[in-house]
Design brief:
- This protein has 2 domains: 186 residues, Neurotransmitter-gated ion-channel ligand-binding domain (Acetylcholine Binding Protein, Chain: A, Distorted Sandwich); 121 residues, Methane Monooxygenase Hydroxylase, Chain G, domain 1, CATH 1.20.58.
- The longest helix has 33 residues.
- Helix content is 35%, strand content 28%.
- The radius of gyration is 29 Å and the shape is rod-shaped.
- About 2% of the residues have low confidence.
- With 343 residues, the protein is an alpha+beta fold.
- It is built from 6 helices and 10 strands; from the N terminus they run E-E-E-E-E-E-E-E-H-E-E-H-H-H-H-H.
- The strands form 2 sheets. Strands 1, 2, 4, 5, 7 and 8 form a 6-stranded mixed sheet that branches. It has a 4-stranded antiparallel sheet with strand order 3-6-10-9, covered by helices on one side.
């Protein structure tokens, strides 16, 4: 990488590298995480000088776009000469909380992208952000001192892009008044996004959520031991399991943000609740129709049918679980290639 003295009134190229020095707690409920970030920026100056003052000399005015409140920010500067050009190196150490839009469709088998968006307060007409040749990296200390390593696996790689994961595409706006003039688009500002990745360790939720829901639903089959012509006994027993499942679901939801879609755990618990509702409906039907002998025979086939349905439900979620691990396998492969490349 070589630096050339920029021309007057031209776009200044700023080479940026981001390092995740430390990754702290990942707060799923509030969609944020704690981290310590090192941002290194290099650019060639139009003027010649030996000491640099950001209040006097030109500065790209970099900041972290997705930082929450005001993070702790310490900067230091060095001046060097390369190929006749004065090169300024800015190294910033930033500690704080960063917002991240978490994708929880596959919760608790989800993979999260923890990104840091380095942006400039100057427009694209004044500055251009370029990733350094070494791109981003994740520090050795970050993987060793990862606070949430009991809950998450942190991958030892960093990806660089121009768009954050929380970027939303623009939707067409239907105007009520077609004669109304169009609003001017705001100016674009340069940005670089460095992302590290982590996958949730799902063991806790497998045993304390999925398995318990499975046992509660499986236990509802014990209601078939009661005489089919006694719905007044069968239905209350089934409704007790139903209320238990609903209460358990609300307890689980307390640890998750209120998202507008169903997670894998939500879908499994709701389908199990619906399954229990079907059982309660069947107990009402069989208890009010047919003779005792006919109802007893039909009830046997109902047990088999509901058993097959419950098995199919769990087979479906087992397949869904295996599919949700595909992104984790891909990231593991990319991590291996990244480590091999950056040795």
């Amino acid at each position: 990488m070589t630096f050339e003295k920029p021309k007057r009134d031209s776009v200044i190229n700023v080479h940026v590298r981001v390092e995740f020095a430390r990754v702290g707690e990942i707060d799923t409920m509030n969609e944020k995480y704690q981290a310590e970030i090192n941002v290194e920026a290099k650019w060639a100056s139009q003027d010649n000088f030996t000491t640099y003052d950001p209040k006097v000399n030109w500065n790209p005015k970099l900041y972290i776009e997705n930082a929450i409140q005001e993070p702790k920010d310490a900067a230091r500067y060095t001046v060097s000469s390369e190929a006749g050009a004065t090169v300024i190196t800015e190294v910033r150490n930033i500690k704080g909380a960063f917002w991240e839009k978490l994708e929880l469709q596959n919760f608790p088998f989800d993979v999260q992208e923890l990104s840091v968006t380095v942006a400039s307060r100057l427009s694209c007409e004044d500055v251009k952000l370029i990733p350094l040749e070494s791109n981003g990296k994740i520090g050795f200390r970050a993987t060793r001192t990862f606070v949430d390593q009991q809950k998450w696996r942190l991958f030892k790689m960093v990806k660089i892009s121009n768009e954050p994961s929380y970027f939303k595409t623009k939707h067409e706006i239907i105007k009520i008044n077609p004669l109304e003039p169009e609003e001017e688009e705001p100016p674009e500002y340069p940005k670089i996004v460095a992302s590290c990745f982590c996958s949730r360790k799902a063991g806790y939720y497998l045993f304390n959520a999925f398995f318990l829901i499975f046992l509660i639903t499986l236990t509802t089959f014990t209601s078939f031991a009661i005489d089919s012509k006694l719905p007044q006994n069968r239905i209350p027993a089934t409704c007790t399991f139903l209320l238990t499942s609903v209460s358990f679901k609300w307890v689980i939801n307390r640890s998750l943000p209120t998202v507008s879609y169903l997670t894998s755990l939500d879908l499994y618990s709701i389908l199990c609740i619906f399954f229990i509702c079907l059982l309660a409906t069947w107990h009402a039907i069989v208890g009010s129709n047919w003779t005792k002998d006919e109802a007893k025979e039909i009830d046997k086939w109902a047990v088999i049918s509901f058993g097959i349905l419950f098995v199919l439900l769990n087979v479906y979620f087992l397949i869904r679980l295996l599919i949700s691990y595909i992104p984790i396998f891909k990231l593991s492969k990319e991590e291996h290639e990244y480590i091999k490349k950056n040795k």
